[in-house]
Design a protein that fits this description.
Spore Coat Polysaccharide Biosynthesis Protein SpsA, Chain A; six-stranded mixed beta sheet; 2 domains; alpha+beta; 12 strands; elongated; two-stranded antiparallel ribbon
Length: about 450
């Protein structure tokens, strides 16, 4: 980082150090204990960690040989490789959404991978077959490239269940005792991948970067962090207005998910009445469903209660309401068009939504798939451009779909919406299946 520079993890971006941001994200996704390995300017790093660890149990371990291979830093924390563990580099700037995707993955052993990165030879690239990581390397040999699929760049975050963590410790002990102590810890991972099944989660398009140089630090502030701090979509802003009250209520994240389910079902029931009053109540309740749908995640992050089951419960509720939406709208206009037309419009639209959810959730379960639309820091939501363009990009997401439904019900454009949903949803799953059919099998 240049003469006189401090530890990279203490570099400040947006008023907070990288270490502070990492600890805040870990705490928000439910991590209760942290082991921090220090080296250069160890006491300054330890002080920053103590200031931001919060309720997490913090253990600081010093590696006096930090100028040698990074394997020695991981080896310094070997006593912690007997339990479920995250192994993380401290020089990475990434949004909390990345941590949520790692912790919410169905893979017990998991890497975060960005498949949108262009390889230059400096990245730790992940290779494998059948959605399983088998190799990781900078400048992998042609033999590996010839028989494995390139998944993308590793973010430097690895999640392991206890049995795999024990295997990693054995590999560390073997290398260090043999005097092989000048290598990166990632150079052990291919051996680990051969003994433990390791999947991966894709975070393509998420705004993140590893910081190795002053130029990286400048880019992190101007291009990466700016995408987090840009405009938010309208529904997230509205949800935030009520968040201080929501956080004071004694409801758990899963209970808030259930509240959103009740609001969604109530809105659908109102839409089926086929009256002007029903349309307006349906519009209002559907908008409230979208607003409340944000609160479960906000409460989970604020209280450190994020769980894999809660994430899947939230997605399931979304799927139920969205699949039933075109059927409810179709039922509400039967008096005008008759059952034949409404079934012709509502049924295919509902099937299209169902197939969209099926194919994207299957991709997630297989360890890939795009970053979740609406995640803070996802590419394309803000970034470069005028304030008007940034606002448009932040709001042109599925998180604001409720406003489309409100407009349709208020102005009575139901047939047009059902026709567009039928066309759009089926086009999406067909093109996605054609692109990813081999990995979806």
């Amino acid at each position: 980082m240049g003469p006189g520079a401090g530890p990279k993890c203490l570099a400040r971006i947006g008023g907070k150090s990288l270490l502070c941001r990492t600890l805040e994200s870990l705490r928000a996704v439910g991590v209760e204990e942290v082991a921090l390995v220090t080296g250069f300017q160890a006491e300054g790093v330890a002080q920053e960690a103590r200031a931001h660890a919060g309720r997490m149990k913090l253990t600081v371990l010093e590696n006096p040989r930090y100028r040698e291979g990074a394997i020695l830093s991981l080896w310094t924390a070997r006593e912690f490789l007997d339990r479920d563990v995250l192994v993380m580099d401290a020089d990475v700037l990434c949004p909390q959404a990345a941590f949520e995707r790692l912790m919410g993955s169905p893979h017990r052993n998991c890497l975060l991978v960005d498949g949108s990165v262009k390889e230059t030879g400096e990245e730790q690239m992940v290779f494998g077959r059948e959605a399983k990581a088998l190799h990781i390397a900078k400048k992998a040999p042609e033999e590996i490239r010839g028989r494995m699929e390139l998944y993308g760049e590793s973010l430097g975050f690895l999640r392991l269940e206890a049995s795999a963590a024990v295997l990693l410790r054995k590999l560390l002990d073997h290398k260090v005792q043999a005097g092989v102590d000048s290598i990166e810890h990632e150079q052990l991972y291919p051996d680990l991948f051969g003994q433990a099944k390791v999947g991966f989660e894709r975070v393509d398009g998420l705004a993140w970067t590893e910081i190795d140089t002053p130029e990286d630090l400048s880019q992190a502030e101007k291009e990466v962090y700016s995408r987090w701090s840009g405009p938010k979509c309208v529904n997230r802003v509205i949800s935030g207005w009520f968040l201080p009250v929501v956080l004071r209520l004694p409801l758990t994240p899963n209970q808030w998910t259930f509240v959103s389910l009740l609001l969604g079902m109530a809105s659908l029931l109102a839409m089926t009445r086929g009256t002007r009053e029903g349309e307006l109540w349906g519009a209002l309740l559907f908008q409230l469903f979208y607003i409340a749908d944000n609160w479960d995640g906000e409460v989970a992050r604020a209280r450190g209660l994020s769980t894999r089951w809660g994430g899947w419960f939230d997605v399931t509720v979304d799927a139920i309401i969205q699949i039933m939406l075109p059927l409810a709208i179709a039922a509400g206009i039967t008096k005008v068009l008759g059952w034949g037309w409404t079934l012709l419009l509502g049924g295919p639209a509902a099937l299209g939504v169902a197939l969209d959810f099926w194919i994207t959730l299957r991709a997630k379960a297989r360890g890939f798939g795009p970053a979740i639309p609406g995640d803070p820091g996802q590419g394309g939501l803000s970034g470069a451009g005028s304030p008007v363009i940034q606002w448009f990009k932040a709001n042109a997401t599925n998180e604001n779909f409720s406003w489309v439904v409100v407009a349709v019900l208020v102005f009575q454009w139901q047939p047009a919406l059902l026709a567009l949903m039928t066309i759009g949803c089926h086009l999406f799953w067909v093109q996605y299946f054609r692109k990813e059919r081999l990995r979806l099998q």
